[in-house]
Every structure is written in structure tokens, then in C-alpha cells.
Specification:
single chain, alpha+beta, 4-stranded antiparallel β-sheet, 19% strand
């Protein structure tokens, strides 16, 4: 019989350094908050690190081992149909927005107990996972590269500088990046910049010249051309349209 108090809730857990195992009659999503955990599911050994998540399906026997000072966010879930992922894909990387939200969840869970807020956090986490573009784990040589790009989008990155971060030759880096990310480094950088620009245009009143600068464009005209190509409107027109939608004129 299921313990309903454990289902559809979020918990922060630590694990023992000794290898232990069990099953449970609900699904579970395991998310490292600090460090990593060694999992054995069937005959498969999996190491789950910060920035990744693991789905443990109900009824599946699994073993686990981690340092006792590492922490993990665990979501016990009745139904995981909201996850847009193949049945055989259980280990995946998370996007930056979800990682930031998980940091908030951690702080809330360790600082206070509010059943209503925790229920809302659980539902929002489900929604984020449901809308997230699931991606397989990155090659470890690319992890630092992606972090550098996401935290320094205004920097003039080159294939050479990024390859050095990955400790690869330029040709090896370009091949590995395309294989794992699905596009060239320059295309990925442009996509990151346009996503950041869209948020600034729609959600702030930051001057367009400053938006361009923050997104790595020294030439405002070049920024506007790229933005217009991607979103089919100039930044100014898109901002005006968005403001009119939020605050329609009453005649």
C-alpha cells in the first residue's frame, strides 16, 4: 500500500557511503544539489552529477551510494507522463532555467515549511520538466564550455578559445560540439544571445543600445538585423506590441 504522504512531494535527501538498495511503488526524480551519486539500476551503473537528473521508475530495484555531505532533491511522483522523454531515457541534462529554480526550491525547503508553497513548487517543477527540451548528458569536455558561454554571452568567443577550455584541438572541438549540441558553436552563441535579447526586450525597458551591448553586439544595426531575422520584427516594434498587449488602450 502506498504512503500517500510521500507521493507528489519534494524532499532533500542525503545518502550513505555504503552501497544500499530498494524499490518503491512510485516514480522518483533524483536531482543532485551538491556533488554526485552512484546509481546501479539493473546491470547499468550511472553517475548522476550536478546539472543532471535521473528518473527512477516505480518497481525498479536500484542501488545508490554517495558521500554523506552531498545533498539531493528528490521528487516522488505518481505519474510521469508529463515528461517528454523516451521510456529508455532516464538520465538527462537540465536547462539553466530549471537549475536556477531548483536552487530556489532548495533554499525554501531548508529554511521554512509551508505546505501550500511546497505544493506550488512541486507543480511548477513538473511544468518546467514537462516543457524542457530533454537532452542527453554532455561530454564532460563540453560542460565547462557551455557554462562559459551561458555566463558570458557578451564575450567575443572564438572556436580557438572554446577549444582550449575543452582541452581539444579546434577540429576535434567543432566535431564534438556539433555531435552533442546539434549545431556549430557560432550558431549556439547566436541562439543564446537572441534568447537573452528577447527577454530584455519583452520584460524590461532597457534601451535597445544597451540590450545589444549586453548580448555581445558592438554594432546596434547588426544586432537589430539579427534580431529581426530571428523574430521577424525589430526589437522596437516587438517591445511596443508586447506593451500594447499588456496594457491595451481603453477607448
Amino acid at each position: 500500500m502506498k504512503d500517500t504522504e510521500l507521493i507528489n512531494h519534494l524532499f532533500i535527501r542525503t545518502y550513505d557511503s555504503q552501497l544500499e538498495g530498494h524499490t518503491h511503488d512510485y516514480h522518483q526524480i533524483l536531482i543532485p544539489l551538491m556533488g554526485d551519486i552512484r546509481m546501479i539500476i539493473g546491470d547499468q551503473a550511472i553517475k548522476v552529477s550536478y546539472g543532471e537528473a535521473l528518473v527512477i521508475r516505480k518497481g525498479v530495484y536500484h542501488q545508490f551510494q554517495a558521500r554523506e555531505d552531498f545533498r539531493f532533491l528528490v521528487a516522488n511522483i505518481e505519474n510521469i507522463e508529463f515528461l517528454q522523454m523516451p521510456l529508455d531515457e532516464i538520465h538527462f541534462a537540465m536547462d539553466e532555467k530549471t537549475l536556477l529554480y531548483i536552487s530556489f526550491v532548495e533554499k525554501q525547503l531548508i529554511s521554512a515549511h509551508n505546505q501550500k508553497i511546497e505544493g506550488m513548487m512541486f507543480e511548477l517543477l513538473k511544468a518546467l520538466f514537462g516543457n524542457m527540451q530533454m537532452s542527453k548528458r554532455l561530454d564532460t569536455r563540453l560542460t565547462a564550455v557551455i557554462h562559459t558561454l551561458k555566463t558570458n554571452i557578451a564575450t567575443n568567443h572564438t572556436v580557438k578559445s572554446l577549444a582550449e577550455i575543452a582541452c581539444l584541438s579546434e577540429s576535434q572541438f567543432k566535431f564534438l560540439f556539433k555531435e552533442h549540441i546539434g549545431c556549430t558553436p557560432n550558431a549556439y552563441i547566436t541562439d543564446l544571445r537572441m534568447q537573452a535579447a528577447l527577454g530584455l526586450i519583452l520584460n524590461t525597458d532597457t534601451p535597445i543600445t544597451i540590450v545589444a551591448e549586453r548580448c555581445g553586439y558592438d554594432n546596434v544595426s547588426a544586432f537589430i538585423r539579427r534580431f529581426s531575422t530571428v523574430y521577424h520584427q525589430t526589437p522596437y516594434r516587438l517591445r511596443c506590441h508586447n506593451q500594447n498587449m499588456k496594457h491595451p488602450t481603453i477607448s
